[in-house]
């Protein structure tokens, strides 16, 4: 059963109850009709006295029901259509005039969902009565309405406040095992999309010698170890000539831990992604000398664009460690005459290492 108008007006809910169309039509018809309450139900009737409005009959108009100023109220003017009124629910008696026959509203007018929702949303959540549903009408479930407004007051679904992923510790704090695991799961650049596996490094983790290459090749990507295949065999021969051996007082790593497609030169962002890993390896290893093999590795570590020819024959420095630059073993396989120059570089590296050992009286400190 529809709510009585008197109750709705007492609580200030009459504009929420009526739709926009009903309010507009009621305002248009106020000059030619009046509201009569029959059986405590709001009905629309024509004024019994021509030219007399609702305010003159004791039923004061609310501020939102204002008749248009250009509408005539004279008896000669044709009565505007009363679209909000519905056919009377009881037959009129012979003594009733057609103008006085009330038009009972059987049911509330069809709500205009967008407008009513907007008006209800304009009210603060705590001021919206719990007997109103989300459309602003009183036929909803109070418990459901209370739950709805409690969600609005709390600011949405609790799922929006899902806990974020914990921040990973800095690379500079990792030990060997944690660093190897971080590299194996690294996805900081696009090289991770096509790699078979990462190439972390291999050798003695307490070595005095650190050998650094450019980037993994095809065989290194498949086996997960730097310097394998023919280039790796040539490197082993060069180490033996220098009284060294792979895995004994020697550690081998690369600037990049993933293979670039088609063995191309790495991009600057790829080098920047991998450089913290190499720096941490140097910090953990604390080598006495570093031998850098290849143009790209030398330019990346020394941050220069100089040619390898101009970098050879001198002692450089990286992270406080002496650095010797020489040719990459894969290049020497294609350019045999440069093997003699490479041997000169290895002799310089041996002399540098012996000089560091002589000046360092104490044992090498352990890594932090």
TrEMBL record:
Enzyme class label: hydrolase
User: What does the UniProt keyword field contain?
Assistant: 4Fe-4S, DNA damage, DNA repair, Hydrolase, Iron, Iron-sulfur, Metal-binding
Q: Which reaction does it catalyse?
A: Hydrolyzes single-stranded DNA or mismatched double-stranded DNA and polynucleotides, releasing free uracil
Give the compositionally biased regions (Low complexity): 67-102
Q: In the Enzyme Commission scheme, what number(s) does this protein have?
A: 3.2.2.27
Region ranges (Disordered)? 42-137
Keyword DNA damage among record annotations: yes
Could you state a single Gene Ontology molecular function term?
uracil DNA N-glycosylase activity
Fetch the PANTHER family from UniProt. Answer: TYPE-4 URACIL-DNA GLYCOSYLASE, TYPE-5 URACIL-DNA GLYCOSYLASE
What is the name attached to this protein's record? Type-4 uracil-DNA glycosylase
């Amino acid at each position: 059963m529809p709510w009585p108008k008197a109750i709705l007006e007492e609580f200030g809910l009459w504009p929420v109850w009526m739709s926009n169309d009903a309010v507009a039509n009621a305002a248009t018809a106020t000059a030619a009709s009046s509201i009569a309450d029959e059986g405590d139900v709001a009905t629309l009737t024509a004024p019994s006295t021509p030219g007399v409005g609702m305010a003159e009959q004791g039923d004061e108009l609310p501020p939102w029901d204002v008749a248009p100023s250009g509408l005539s109220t004279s008896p000669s003017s044709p009565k505007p259509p009363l679209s909000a009124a519905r056919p009377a629910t009881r037959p009129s008696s012979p003594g009733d005039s057609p103008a006085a026959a009330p038009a009972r509203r059987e049911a509330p007018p069809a709500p205009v969902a967008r407008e009513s929702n907007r008006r209800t949303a304009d009210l603060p959540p705590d001021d919206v009565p719990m007997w109103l549903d989300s459309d602003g009408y009183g036929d909803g479930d109070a418990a459901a309405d209370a739950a709805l407004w409690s969600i609005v007051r709390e600011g949405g679904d609790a799922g929006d406040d899902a806990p974020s992923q914990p921040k990973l510790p800095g690379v500079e704090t990792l030990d060997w095992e944690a660093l190897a695991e971080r590299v194996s799961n690294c996805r900081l650049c696009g090289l991770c999309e096509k790699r078979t596996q990462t190439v972390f490094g291999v050798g003695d983790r307490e070595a005095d010698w650190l050998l650094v290459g450019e980037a993994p090749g095809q065989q290194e990507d498949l086996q997960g170890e730097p310097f394998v295949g023919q280039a790796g065999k040539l490197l082993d021969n060069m180490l033996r000539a220098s009284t060294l051996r792979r895995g004994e007082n020697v550690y081998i790593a690369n600037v990049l831990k993933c293979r670039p497609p088609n063995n191309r030169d790495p991009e600057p962002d790829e080098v920047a992604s991998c450089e913290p890993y190499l720096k941490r390896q140097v910090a953990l290893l604390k080598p006495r000398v570093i031998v850098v093999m290849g143009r790209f590795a030398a330019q990346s570590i020394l941050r220069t664009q100089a040619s390898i020819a101009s970098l050879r024959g001198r002692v450089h420095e990286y992270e406080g460690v002496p650095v010797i630059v020489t040719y990459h073993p894969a290049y020497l396989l294609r350019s045999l005459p440069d093997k003699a120059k490479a041997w000169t570089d290895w002799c310089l590296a041996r002399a540098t290492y012996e000089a560091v050992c002589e000046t360092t009286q104490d044992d090498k400190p352990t890594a932090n």
